[in-house]
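Team,

Forwarding the record for the chain on the shared tracking sheet. I've put the sequence and predicted structure together so nobody has to dig through attachments.
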Amino acid sequence: MSRFIKSIQEVEDFKIEEKRKFFSATHEEIEKGLTTDIYFIRAQEVLRYLQLENTMVTAEIFPREEGMLAGVQEVYNLLKDKKIKLWALKEGKIFQSKETVMRIEGPYSEFGIFETVILGILASSSAWATAAWKCKEAAGDKKIICFGSRHIHPAVAPVMERSALVGGVDGVSCILGAKLSKTKPQGTIPHAVIIIAGDTVKVAKAYHFCIPPKVPRIILVDTFKDEAEESIRVAKILKKNLTGVRLDTPSERGGVTPDLVKEVRTRLDLAGFSEVKIFVSGGLNPERITVLSKMPADAFGVGSYISDASPIDMTLDIKEVEGKPLAKRGRIPGKIENERLERIL
């Protein structure tokens, strides 16, 4: 097989291993173009027949709505060995609807089959970064940790978590997602540990004994007893070693409300534990974060709001052919200049 597939015959010849464990694409399969739409391969066949496959073109990518750009590094990695020029906004930059966020110049045969891949990378990564950005904006100077990996396929969980970091969150829980961004994975423990052990205080003492000292002591307090009561019980055992308590009250019991946060904070203060922080998680979104930020909540764990973000529709258009402005009806022919674009390849 060639560097990347270029013909219908190569598609026909490609075979899947019978004992393949997972359905997600490998890095090699993505680079070979095996996750593209078949019509881009057919396009190459037609252009090759017409002897136009190496036609020089300029293509531009724009979004359908406002957001924060992420995924540029992966697109760069995909195209860096191709005979093209590449411009893009920096990751983490806010873009407007229909703003040119990326431009590619070169022979169409060098990048044409990767249109599906490029748009998919930018659409999903930018959506996750945008959701994270909105949460961080709502939280202000309070910390946001991304807990979204459990809500999506594990093959893309690290991509989502890296995008959330681009969006401004202060940490992520997925090990690989954190490692890819050269940060440390963050998180406490699941309710399962407390349910198995039968007592929150018992688990808190064990956590303090066996977890490295540099890891903050943040203990779940909503498993068996009243959250305020459990917070005091844990604080009395760990004393100054307790960094914070985590409220993750399920929706079946009303979730974490502003009044609950206020009560836990007041009771901790009255008991002499004003230094203990309150970490809130469970069904959070920017609106709830804004409300809870006005209460004495100190940090937030956000899962599904980030991971479930709908991809931001990205479109790639040919804007020039052999240096001449040309585009489909409804689009403006020629480059749409954007002074924020930077040459990266």
